[in-house]
Amino acid sequence: MSPLPESIRRFEPSRRIRHVIYYLTGLVLLIVLYTVAYNYALARLEGANQSIFASFEFVIQTMTTTGYGQDSDIWSHPLMFLFVALIQISGIAVGFFTLRLIIIPLFTSAEVNLDDRLSPKNGHVIICEYRRDSAILLDELREFGIDYVLISSSREDAESLSNRGYAAIHGSPQATTTFERASIKTARTVITDAGDANVNTILTVRGVRPDIDVIALTDDSRMEEILRTVGADTVLSPHGVLGHRLAEKAVASFSSELRDTIELGGDTRLMELPVSESSELVGRSIRETRVRERTGANIVGAWLDGELQLPPSPDAVVRPNTVLLVSGEEAALKNLSEFTRPPRSFTGHERFVLVGLGEVGRAAKSVIEESGGEVVTVDVEDRPGVDIVGDGGAREVLLAAGVESAGAIIIGVPDDSIALLTTVLAQSINPEIEVLTRVGDAEATQKAFSAGADYVLSVPRVSARMVAKELRGEDVLAPASQIRLVRVPSTPFSGSTLGNSRIYERTGCRVIAIEDGDGQTVSVDPQRQFSGDERITIVGGDEAVQKFLKRFDVSPTDLP
Fold first, then answer.
1. Keywords on this record (predicted)?
2. From CA 473, how far away is CA 469, in angstroms rounded?
3. What's the domain count of the chain?
4. pTM over 0.85
5. How far is Cα 285 from Cα 276, in angstroms, rounded to an integer?
6. In this structure, what CATH number is given to the domain that contains residue 63?
7. pLDDT digits over 157-198, tens only?
């Protein structure tokens, strides 16, 4: 007798297959038991002798609820009626378990063709292997009215996104056929975030369409030259931007130098100012701060407890983690910065502690050193530039780094749990320290504020904002900012005054600058009548600006 093939002898069924085998075996045994018992009961209780096959047919008909009329006139004994009722009830139970264990999994596990869910595409964006919370980016693009197709090599991720209403397909971004399925011939841009496979992806794209715009995202800014060499038109490094932003915020807290300002026309500028915990503004209402009277600057908006208010309520209380959105001339903004930063000036000996020396940390370190500050670096790995090797979530490590006397600590570790722990420890060691934290999960932003952070940036949000800004070409205070600033024509308001247009009431956006037809900046007067030749600059959150653009059917123009 020949032995069984090796593949059969080594076959190990999955847990689900084993359950199905056990279930079917038990079902067969139950049917055999009922058949024999029914045949015996007919003979003993009713005095009727019939073939075992006829009894088998009766059991199958009863358990499947297809009928059993041919035997109903034979029954008279109470036990026979009870036995038949038992078969009927168990038949219902068997049907339920068969549906749940076999039928439903059979159909739900069937492979779904995600391509069939795509609507016709033209002028869209193709996104390859986005690894920074795809939903945040796709929501951003949806709000901007940018059509897209996301390619994921993970079928599970692709199906999950597709089931939630996103345009996602499964496939390898290193395969030409995948891009053909994503309609690359009619696409305008390809965005790749495939990590080490970025080079392969870019070369594949260039082989299909040499003329298409390619944007590459990387966690290592040192890859920029290589990615451009193989065909990337634009290279974005979100971690580097995030690190720069955190460091600039830290330095700005102790410096009178204005950073990240945007010119609105003439001498007027717009900028964000984080309020230090030791600022004299903390604990006062917006009305009580008397910012305009004391400095000449205007408070346009404020982030209060993670919520953007445009304009803030006069009774809103300024807290340590408040970020003010202010406009005015350079001198006025400098005057205001004196009230928002700690009551001491920046010196070359100001100490900053930097936890985590990856891409975020290296970017932050360069900004601090260029500003003349002293920086002490902490990292779990002994690498060039690390001063203290250890876990930033350990109290003794933070003490060794001098947190108790530092002006600010920048937490750039990739693990959110460690980042939150370090935030709490730093605050407990030095309640006066400025804490700036990077988080990898957008939902951890509020947790970081609750833990004591003064300023928080999330990698997914910064990445999505950088991509959207690149695609739309509109300006913001910085790629890391949650505030959008756009300039639009005043055509929809021609013949109406600013006050009557009710822009803020209808959209949540605020007009902060008006430029007349000659390009001159004019005062924002609610009684000014628009001729339709002006350009107005509005500011608002993501949803508010998108609502404005859709409601009035206008497109943003370039800011200076």
1. Membrane, Transmembrane, Transmembrane helix
2. 5
3. 5
4. no
5. 15
6. 1.10.287.70
7. 998 888 888 999 999 999 999 999 999 999 999 999 999 999
